[in-house]
Specification:
By secondary structure, the protein is α/β, with parallel strands linked by helices. It folds into 2 domains: about 1-150 and about 295-350, Quinone Oxidoreductase, Chain A, domain 1 (Alpha-Beta Complex); about 160-290, 3-Layer(aba) Sandwich (Rossmann fold), CATH 3.40.50. The chain contains 10 helices and 16 strands. The two termini are about 30 Å apart.
Length: about 350
């Protein structure tokens, strides 16, 4: 089979590989719509360490082509939504009560582009299909479902870790696709004042549609000072959805006492995070710092589709570019890597989809 990925760090291209085998509890899926992610480009450039001969991609909806003998809920031909996090449900990390992101090791449940080839291929492998695949919910479009598998799940997890409550003043740092989902999730959770930090006009537009009450731009001055002035001293909750190694210090400085900083940002393996102790109140003002990777499995995605279905949340608003055809995955990933000013999220249609946008 063919797939698009990386021969080595900073060396992308089309790979020829053996089609994956199917275990008794597993499934083989062919993609119908995929979405390149900044995590894919991060990996391509070595941000998660060296990788070789790896097919990229971890966001897909697709069609089942094969199932193992013990799979009960799926059959060939089923249209399925595939979480980006597909745990080994027998892993001791899950039994120890850790997030479903870490089954046997840190990030262990993030199989695609980690321990297995990704979804930007003619076929890809999903372990524990009955627990890691779900059918498309009625009333949810394939595009909306595709945005649940990582972007919505990750952005909402930032909101969950921040424990956003009714009337909280919330800041979301970085209003790219994950940050926009965090804005939407915080609004659904009952945030009061909701501040997005970003500059791209199309991202600002969607942020306001999702519920942002204010936008702060670094082009208009120091963002920490702007937030502290807007909030009268700091926000209750700050969600980090973008930024470099200095962003934690900024987040802490714009968080009030008894507040929470929650990070779903993907930092570089070479980064060292540091912050002035004064920004943390000398460690004495109960500013919590939390970080995490979104939970995995089918139930997580089913619940997110229910938010779309019953609460009218449109996750597909973050889709800014569309491509058609298997070969276009290369162009879509390059676009994601270039981060053009009008980019939010690209998707690639592999073939015609029932109910997909024309």
């Amino acid at each position: 089979m063919r797939g698009y990925g990386m021969f080595s760090v900073n060396n992308p291209g089309w790979l020829e590989k053996e089609r994956p085998g199917c275990g008794p509890y597993d499934a083989i899926v062919t993609p119908r719509i995929v979405a390149p992610c900044s995590s894919d480009t991060h990996s391509l450039h070595g941000g998660s360490g060296p990788k070789e001969n790896m097919i990229l991609g971890h966001e897909a909806v697709g069609t089942v082509v094969e199932v193992g003998a013990e799979v009960k809920g799926f059959k060939p031909g089923d249209f399925v939504v595939v979480p980006c996090v597909t745990p080994d449900w027998l892993g001791l990390g899950i039994q120890h009560g850790k997030s479903f992101s870490h089954d046997r090791r840190p990030f262990g449940s993030f199989k695609f582009i980690s321990s297995e080839d990704g979804v930007m291929a003619e076929f890809f492998h999903v372990i524990h299909a009955d627990a890691n695949l779900t059918h498309l919910a009625e009333g949810v479009t394939p595009e909306q479902a595709l945005m649940t598998v990582d972007m919505m799940s990750t952005g909402f997890y930032g909101v969950e870790m921040a424990d956003v409550r009714y009337g909280d003043t919330v800041v979301v740092i970085g209003i790219g696709p994950v940050g926009l989902m965090a804005v939407g999730g915080a609004a659904l959770r009952g945030a009061g004042r909701l501040i997005g930090i970003g500059t791209r006009p199309n991202c600002v537009k969607v942020a306001r549609e999702y519920g942002a009450t204010d936008i702060v731009s670094y082009k208009e001055g120091d963002v920490v000072e702007q937030v502290r002035e807007l909030t009268g001293g700091g926000a209750d909750k700050v969600i980090i959805a973008g930024g470099g190694k200095d962003i934690l210090a900024q987040a802490l400085a714009m968080t009030r006492e008894m507040g929470t900083v929650a990070s779903v940002n993907y930092f570089d393996a070479a980064d060292t995070l540091a912050f002035p102790t004064l920004a943390w109140g000398l460690g004495m003002v109960n500013k919590d710092i939390r970080s995490g990777f979104c939970p995995g499995g089918a139930v997580r995605i089913q619940k997110l589709m229910d938010v779309i279905r019953y609460r009218g949340f449109d996750s597909s608003k973050i889709i800014s570019h569309t491509f058609r055809g298997f070969e276009k995955m290369e162009d879509a990933l390059k676009l994601m890597d270039s981060k053009t000013p009008d980019l939010i999220k690209p998707v690639v249609y592999i073939d015609d989809l029932p109910g997909a946008a024309a």
